[in-house]
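Marked as duplicate of an earlier ticket. Keeping the data here for the record.
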Amino acid sequence: MSIDQLDVPPMLPKGLVPYRVSVDQYAAMVARGIFTKQDRLELIEGMLVRKMTKGRRHSRASENCRRAIERALPEGWHLEVEKPVRLPLRSSMPEPDLFVARGEVDDYEDLDPGPPDVALVVEVSDTTLAADRALAATYLNGGIPSYWIVNLPERTLEVYTAAGREILAEDADVTLFVDDQPIARLRVADFLAGRKTE
């Protein structure tokens, strides 16, 4: 779906179209300090979107994911936590729970990582599953090769790539790819918070 095809809010008078913000415009606003820490916004498909507050189960699963993925990363790659990813093709600058980026943190002092730099984006989903699934198109069409949703309510891992969507059960393994190379097999159970209930 292109930015022009997004729904216009119904309260706008007929014929009016909301102004879409580009990645460069949004980055300039952030750099100028227009937003405060209390604003908690991210740019999705040209629109400013308020970030959801995260609960304890979400936070625990995010930490589990961080530990599991960091242990598997090869030299020359690192993990970012709740930092911006530039997706100019989608007029988006989301701040996913985790993403795997090329190089070191200091390599991105002047510009946030974009599609050539990012191997994987991970969202932990507890109460925002529909919104997180909708973001799959933003990430994949924006040039990100792999997008994972750690689905806490269903205790599964949803893997999105150009080939489609695969849903992996708690007792399954998932292959971590970096630069199109399989790097490690990780257990889905290691990403989840708490224990499976019968």
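See parent ticket for discussion. The helical segments are 23-31, 56-72, 129-141.
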